[in-house]
């Protein structure tokens, strides 16, 4: 592929962006007085900041590149990741779960598990989460460096080290606050950087109607403008049960409600009211992100269908290399100047993903591993220092994992698979733990393990269509069920793992004795916690009102694009 | 945390806006705009970012310079929460 032609103006935009990112870290350095400042942003940030950071931490490269690729592969059906996936989960987190996270004295999700259940449940969650975040950060770095090498002809190692260095400097200087503030900056940059692409692209294909007409030229892509009406068990996303329960319920609730990477942003808010509003404020832009990331993928396919001489998508295997949709669209429509802005936005999305993982790793490592198991009972200053050094350590290990990713592609697939197995049962443990006081530590822990094991088992007996390696499933040698795609397979694995974990947690809890008294569970379990009364001045500022507004808009959008 | 993030966001987009606006004017009618369907997308994006950046600065704690000294940094820490609230009102 021919490299992009960048000029001095594109490079100046990149350099100015890096200067601002580092400057924000530097400006925050003087506020880092204790471990709470560094690892929890002093629990003092306004809701709009944490709200935008909440979605920006997730608006990493995976989302921008991956959702555009999915838009090109499946069309508007991709919005299920948003309107049925993220949004209901974000509402649930805000209304029902945030009071326990923020109201308890927990400083992290694993620590909540320790308070609610026991040490082993916390340990399990802390270690798996720490490994997962480090690998996710490494994957981000690897993907960024690879993209820069392909698009701009930059040296792979140089790109890797420069991006790691920038993330290291600003998270080392300002900790979680620096990551969050930069995520807000990155959020605006990503939106503003990609907007010209969407607008020009839509003009080119003749607006929404023109795009739909061009998509209809190919029978395989003709239903791309609808999200639900084409869904059948043969659809690559699977049937509506898989989408509704697997994606919408288990996977999305598991991710948005229990993943410390995003929950940490809400926990950094200055008050209970702000913490609960964080996911809801994030939900408003989140609902419209599909138009920014999915539409470019659909425009790309419309252009391929109608034959645009200036646009081409490289081929990979039997199909297109869909991950290159965004870069090829940038190349097709943006001249030097805005091209630099678009590429900077792309880099920003990688960096926010990296920094989000690094800061979440910091907090969990320092509080839940170092302070709990390695060196307890030291001064606050000591843990602040450890937090800072963990940043360096975390980034160095990320670089290492980036090289592991470069060497063994299958190892990354394998690890992501294991983590996917852990996530669905985790939500079952939370649901039972937060809403029934009878759930015990043994119940939660063994429920988690049973659920994870059953996920691995289902994976062993099923396969997506056209699977080539055992990482995709069927490792037992017996394939009982073939799914239309990997996605559909994942949705069903999640449903089964969650159900097994739920049943196991209930049965084992009933068979074991409670170790925590009602008094100890106050603030951690629904029935034992006084109802949160919101003190916002006006009714429309209250989390409940915001939640209704978010829900209604999501329903309207779903109906429009049915 | 005493940093008002609207200030760096505002400044960054004003700088980006200025660069792209000036570049857009200099390259009026350049053939590279064939890519963007003949539209001077640098100029439009630049103007848009200028407006956005300026808006961020206007609603920021800078309040047109009145609190510049504070943002640049020394006394914010000494302010108690009550004092901060009073300032905001």
Give the helices and strands, then pairings.
The complex is a heterodimer of chains A (562) and B (89).
Chain A: H1 8-28, H2 35-40, H3 47-56, H4 61-74, H5 80-103, H6 109-116, H7 119-152, H8 156-204, H9 207-215, H10 240-258, H11 260-267, H12 272-306, E1 315-316, E2 319-320, H13 325-333, H14 338-374, H15 380-407, H16 409-435, H17 441-461, E3 462-464, E4 481-483, H18 486-511, H19 543-560
Parallel strand pairs in A: 3-4
Antiparallel strand pairs in A: 1-2
Helix pairs in contact in A: 1-8, 1-14, 3-8, 3-11, 3-12, 4-12, 5-10, 5-12, 5-19, 6-7, 7-8, 7-14, 7-15, 7-16, 7-17, 8-9, 8-12, 8-14, 8-15, 9-12, 10-16, 10-18, 11-14, 12-19, 14-15, 15-16, 16-17, 16-18, 17-18
Chain B: H1 6-26, H2 41-59, H3 68-72, H4 81-88
Helix pairs in contact in B: 1-2
Summarize the structure in words.
The complex is a heterodimer of chains A (562) and B (89). Chain A has 562 residues and is mainly alpha-helical. In chain A, a hairpin with a 2-residue loop joins strand 1 (315-316) and strand 2 (319-320). Chain A is globular, with a radius of gyration of 23 Å. Chain A has helices at residues 8-28, 35-40, 47-56, 61-74, 80-103, 109-116, 119-152, 156-204, 207-215, 240-258, 260-267, 272-306, 325-333, 338-374, 380-407, 409-435, 441-461, 486-511, 543-560; strands spanning 315-316, 319-320, 462-464, 481-483. The mean pLDDT of chain A is 86. In chain A, the strands form two sheets. In chain A, strands 1-2 form a two-stranded antiparallel ribbon. In chain A, strands 3-4 form a two-stranded parallel sheet. The longest helix of chain A has 49 residues, at 156-204. Chain A starts with 7 loop residues before the first helix and ends with a helix. Chain A has 19 helices and four strands. In chain A, helix 4 (61-74) packs across helix 12 (272-306), helix 7 packs across helix 15 (380-407) and helix 11 (260-267) crosses helix 14 (338-374). With 89 residues, chain B is mainly alpha-helical. Chain B has one domain. Chain B has helices spanning 6-26, 41-59, 68-72, 81-88. Chain B starts with 5 loop residues before the first helix and ends with a helix. The A-B interface holds A 9, 12-13, 16-17, 20, 23-24, 27-28, 30-31, 37, 41-42, 44-45, 49, 177, 181, 184-185, 188-189, 192, 196, 200, 203-204, 310, 332-338, 341 and B 1-3, 5, 8-9, 11-13, 15-16, 19-20, 23-24, 27, 30, 32-33, 35-37, 39, 41-42, 44-45, 48-49, 52, 73, 77.
